[in-house]
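hiii so um. not sure if this is the right channel but i have a protein structure encoded as C-alpha cells and i wanna go backwards to a sequence. like what aa goes where. can anyone help
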C-alpha cells in the first residue's frame, strides 16, 4: 500500500487520533483531544478512521463493530471536522507541512542540514544555486520540487484561517493565548526552509521568470497575504544576511546560519561587515521593490496574446498592490 501524500488535506494520519480499542474506534482531534465526527459530504455518512488493519477475526464480529474498524479514513475536505476544531491542530498541520517540505527540498536539492557553521554556509550557497537554476531554466527534472513548494504554500495558507465561532469559543474556554499561538507559528515558519525559498523567488526581478512561474508567484503572494491577515506580519520583517553578489567565499560568515532563524538568535560574529556577506534583507524589504515588478508586468500585458496568461499577470499585479497597500498602512 502506498503512503499518503504528505501534502494532502488535512494530514489525516497525523491530525486524527483513533482509539486503539478495536470495539470503540472513536476519533479525536490531535490538537485538543476532543471527540470528533468527520462527515463525508458526498454520501452524508459519518466517517471513522481505521484503528488497525483488517484481520481474519474481523468477520466474526458484529456488523456494527466491524464497521467502526473498517470504514475508510477521513481524507479531509469540507466534511472534515478537524478544519474548524482548534488552533492547536492548525499549528500541528502547519508543522507537518513544513517538515514534509524540508524533507523534499533536502532530497531534491541534495543537501544535508548541519549544525556546523562552515557546512551551513556551503549548504546555503548550494540551496541558493539550486533555486536560482530552477527559476531561470525550464528543467522538467526540477518540476517535482516546484510542485512540492507550491503545494506547501497552499497547504500552509489554507491552515492560516480564522477559526469558526465554535472553535474560537472553545479556544477561549481553554484559556489559549493567541499571542503564544502566533509566536509558535512564527517559530515554525522561521525554522523551515520554506521562507528561504520564498526569499529567493522574490529576489528575482526578471519579469520573464515571473510570468513563466506565475502559479508559484501567485502562491507566494497569497501566502504572504494570509500571514498578514493571521497576525504574522512580524515574520515578514525578519532580516537575513545574504551572500554578497560578487562573493564565492565558503568561509564561516557567508550566510552560515539558518537564514530565517530569528535575528536575535544569530551569532554576533555573523556581521554584515564580514567578507562575503551582503546586506540584511527581509521579505518586507523585498515587497517594497515589487512596485517596479508591477509596472514591468503591466507593460508586457499588451504584448501577450494568450488570455489565460494575461489573467495570471493581472492577478499578480492585484496581489502586489494588496501587499504594497498593507505596507503603506503599517501592516508589516
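sure thing!! here u go:
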Amino acid at each position: 500500500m502506498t503512503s499518503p501524500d504528505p501534502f494532502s488535506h488535512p494530514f489525516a494520519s497525523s491530525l486524527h487520533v483513533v482509539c486503539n480499542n478495536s470495539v470503540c474506534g472513536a476519533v479525536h482531534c490531535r490538537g485538543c483531544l476532543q471527540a470528533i465526527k468527520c462527515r463525508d459530504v458526498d454520501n452524508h455518512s459519518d466517517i471513522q478512521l481505521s484503528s488497525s488493519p483488517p484481520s481474519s477475526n474481523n468477520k466474526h464480529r458484529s456488523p456494527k463493530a466491524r464497521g467502526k474498524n473498517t470504514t475508510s479514513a477521513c481524507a479531509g475536505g469540507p466534511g472534515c471536522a478537524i478544519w474548524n476544531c482548534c488552533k492547536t491542530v492548525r499549528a500541528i498541520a502547519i508543522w507537518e507541512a513544513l517538515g514534509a517540505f524540508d524533507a523534499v527540498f533536502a532530497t531534491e536539492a541534495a543537501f544535508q542540514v548541519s549544525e556546523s557553521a562552515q557546512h551551513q554556509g556551503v549548504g546555503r550557497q548550494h540551496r541558493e544555486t539550486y533555486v536560482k537554476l530552477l527559476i531561470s531554466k525550464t528543467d522538467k527534472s526540477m518540476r517535482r520540487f516546484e510542485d512540492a513548494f507550491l503545494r506547501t504554500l497552499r497547504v500552509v495558507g489554507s491552515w492560516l484561517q480564522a477559526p469558526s465561532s465554535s472553535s474560537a469559543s472553545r479556544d477561549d474556554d481553554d484559556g489559549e493565548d493567541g499571542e503564544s499561538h502566533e509566536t509558535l507559528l512564527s517559530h515554525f515558519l522561521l525554522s523551515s526552509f520554506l521562507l528561504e525559498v520564498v526569499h529567493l523567488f522574490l529576489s528575482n526581478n526578471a519579469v520573464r521568470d515571473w510570468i513563466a512561474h506565475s502559479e508559484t508567484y501567485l502562491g507566494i503572494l497569497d501566502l504572504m497575504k494570509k500571514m498578514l491577515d493571521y497576525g504574522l506580519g512580524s515574520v515578514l520583517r525578519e532580516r537575513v544576511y545574504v551572500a554578497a553578489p560578487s562573493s564565492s567565499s565558503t568561509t564561516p560568515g557567508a550566510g552560515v546560519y539558518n537564514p530565517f532563524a530569528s535575528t536575535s538568535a544569530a551569532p554576533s560574529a555573523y556581521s554584515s561587515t564580514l567578507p562575503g556577506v551582503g546586506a540584511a534583507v527581509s521579505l518586507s524589504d523585498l515587497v517594497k521593490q515589487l512596485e517596479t515588478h508591477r509596472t514591468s508586468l503591466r507593460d508586457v500585458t499588451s504584448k501577450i496574446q494568450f488570455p489565460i496568461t494575461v489573467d495570471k499577470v493581472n492577478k499578480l499585479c492585484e496581489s502586489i498592490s494588496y501587499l504594497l497597500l498593507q505596507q503603506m498602512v503599517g501592516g508589516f
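oh and Residues 94-238+250-262 form one domain.
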